[in-house]
Design a protein that fits this description.
Elements: H1 16-25, H2 29-46, E1 51-52, H3 57-64, H4 69-76, E2 80-81, E3 86-87, H5 91-94, H6 99-117, H7 131-140, H8 154-157, E4 164-168, E5 184-188, H9 189-195, H10 200-203, E6 214-217, E7 220-223, H11 232-240, H12 252-266, H13 272-285, H14 287-300, H15 312-317
Helix pairs in contact: 1-2, 1-4, 12-14
């Protein structure tokens, strides 16, 4: 719509965050501010609240014709990504049809405070943590305060009896303008009030009540990735090998002992193909010899089935006999 505009500071090229982006991208200030204007204008046109789906960091880089531009914006806190959405912080302040009116109202109120009290609030309004981030942090921490362990649930937090809040691990007032899931933690209101603007190390209470797949390291909460290299079907096939098998008839107990021995050595069950091959060979030897060979192999700590008839240790220990011809 004609006349729509976005709010940008006149001294934006001198902003420390712009300078930091210049260092990251090896651009000059005007190359960065021009691309910021283009991207923010797109957000103003295509979103209502600065939250949108369907775009990625690669799309942002293509749209502004600069590789790494999205990462640089994330680094300075001007773009946030989650698994579900992309968020433009401070959208309600800088964008939208009524942005100019809001800007004028803020300026008028600030000047009024200066006239009557000769003081100002000394800073900008804090960024509200987006709701998608709040939901993901609560789910990740299982609705438990990571500092004292006080627990809640989804139903309670949606009611007037909510007891949890979201804490910046490194306080926002300490220059932590970057809002990422790793920098946010579930915190009860009592702990949040006591922690104030201190880091957990300064406060003396580290995040210890973490979910099983999370850990606190280097001032952030890191979610450990699950190892999906072994699928459920593969695990089922491996576990099948420790049970009785048709070809193990006559030495099923010894076969189970062998599978358990290999699991204790390798930390995993025998692959199905390998188990079939070993069973075929033992079946060919016969039940009695299969029992002896399995027991012998376990005693020797071998990773394969040995032939108990070839016990070279016993053969070397036998005394030599000499034929004197008498």
């Amino acid at each position: 719509m004609a006349g729509d505009w976005i709010k940008m500071k006149m001294d934006l090229p001198e902003d420390p965050d712009v300078i930091q982006m210049c260092d990251i991208l090896d651009f000059d200030e005007y190359q960065v501010t021009g691309r910021l204007h283009k991207l923010w204008s797109w957000a103003d046109k295509h979103t209502n609240d600065g939250v949108t789906k369907g775009i990625t960091k690669n799309w942002v880089d293509r749209y502004v014709c600069a590789s790494g531009f999205a990462d640089a914006m994330i680094e300075v806190g001007w773009l946030m990504l989650s698994e579900e959405v992309v968020i433009f912080p401070n959208f309600d302040v800088h964008n939208g049809q009524s942005a100019k009116k809001r800007c004028d109202d803020v300026l008028r109120k600030r000047m009024s405070r200066e006239r009557h009290k000769n003081v100002t609030n000394g800073g900008d309004k804090r960024v509200t943590i987006p709701r998608p981030f709040v939901r993901q942090v609560l789910d990740r921490d299982q609705y438990t305060c990571v500092y004292c362990g006080e627990q809640s649930n989804k139903e309670r937090e949606a009611s007037r009896k909510a007891i949890l809040s979201i804490d910046h691990i490194v306080p926002y007032s300490r220059g932590n303008g970057r809002q990422a899931l790793e920098d946010l933690a579930t915190c009860c209101r009592r702990c949040n009030s006591e922690k104030t603007d201190r880091t957990p190390e300064e406060w003396g209470l580290l995040p210890t009540f973490l979910a099983a797949n999370c850990e606190y390291t280097k001032g952030t909460i890191v979610t450990k990735t699950c190892d999906n290299s072994v699928t459920r079907e593969e695990k089922r096939r491996e576990e099948k090998n420790i049970h009785s098998h048709p070809q193990a008839e006559g030495f099923a107990k010894e076969w189970t002992r062998w599978c358990e021995f290999r699991y204790s050595v390798d930390g995993r069950h025998l692959p199905e193909v390998q188990a079939e091959s070993i069973l075929m060979e033992l079946h060919r030897r016969g039940p009695e010899k299969a029992k002896r060979d399995i027991d012998f192999s376990i005693q020797k700590g071998a990773r394969s089935i040995l032939d108990s008839d070839n016990d070279f240790g016993k053969q070397r220990s036998k005394p030599k006999t000499v034929d004197l011809g008498i």
